[in-house]
Design a protein that fits this description.
The chain has 225 residues and is an alpha/beta fold. It contains 5 helices and 17 strands.
């Protein structure tokens, strides 16, 4: 893993200070002791936490507009590396607590992914974990099962690369499955529970894949190739 530099940490720290500052100002404008009485302290803290994350979503999306994540190999010292490393800091310091929790209801967790940049089609949900929301796309009527994990980054020693994951319509990803970077899953395909889909795999429409590493089992859930 590449070292996160002082400049990257400093830039993120400035953004974090801006987020907290905006949240504090917003909370003071919305929470009034005269209105809340004895509940002022509790409401103030809850509102502050909610507004920290609310402003974090806004600042993060603005950051991605200014520094979009670049697919492919990330050159050391490049603008793409700066964007990718600051992106990592956002998740280490703020967003991992949301995307890895089992407490949030599934519709709210799916909304969090959408706010972080995942393109999510109609009637699609993710009880699982999407580690790189801006580099993940879900079609309509697609489900990512409980404890399944999708990650669009490849960090192997000093090698660092980003590749988008695209799931089509009516795709099912089973519980505890792992989908690595650069994977494309066609419409109506099924990835079995516990499967590990290797980097860059192309799963065709209607295919059923399973195993470690995943391989094509057939075109129907009960088939075996």
């Amino acid at each position: 893993m590449r070292k996160i530099t002082a400049g990257q940490i400093g830039f993120f720290t400035l953004l974090l200070a801006l987020i907290i500052g905006l949240a504090v100002v917003s909370t003071r404008l919305l929470a009034h002791r005269a209105w809340l009485g004895d509940f002022y302290g509790v409401v103030y803290v809850i509102l502050l936490v909610l507004l920290v994350y609310g402003w974090a979503f806004v600042i993060y999306r603005l950051f991605l507009r200014a520094y979009p994540l670049q697919e492919g190999y990330i050159e050391p010292g490049s603008r793409a590396e700066f964007a990718a490393q600051v992106n990592i800091l956002f998740y280490l310091m703020l967003f991992n607590t949301l995307i890895r929790t089992e407490i949030l209801p599934v519709p709210i967790k799916t909304l969090v992914y959408a706010l972080l940049g995942t393109k999510i089609g109609a009637n699609s949900f993710s009880p699982g974990t999407i580690l790189d929301p801006p580099l993940t796309e879900l079609g309509d009527n697609t489900i990512i099962g409980h404890a399944a994990t999708l990650y669009s980054h490849a960090i192997e020693g000093h090698h660092f690369a980003l590749e988008k994951i695209v799931l089509g319509n009516n795709v099912t990803v089973g519980a505890h499955a792992i989908i690595m970077s650069g994977v494309t899953v066609g419409d109506g395909a099924i990835v079995s529970a516990g499967a590990v889909v290797k980097k860059g795999t192309r799963i065709g429409p209607g295919e059923h894949w399973g195993g470690v590493p995943a391989r094509r089992l057939g075109s129907e859930p009960g088939d075996a190739a």
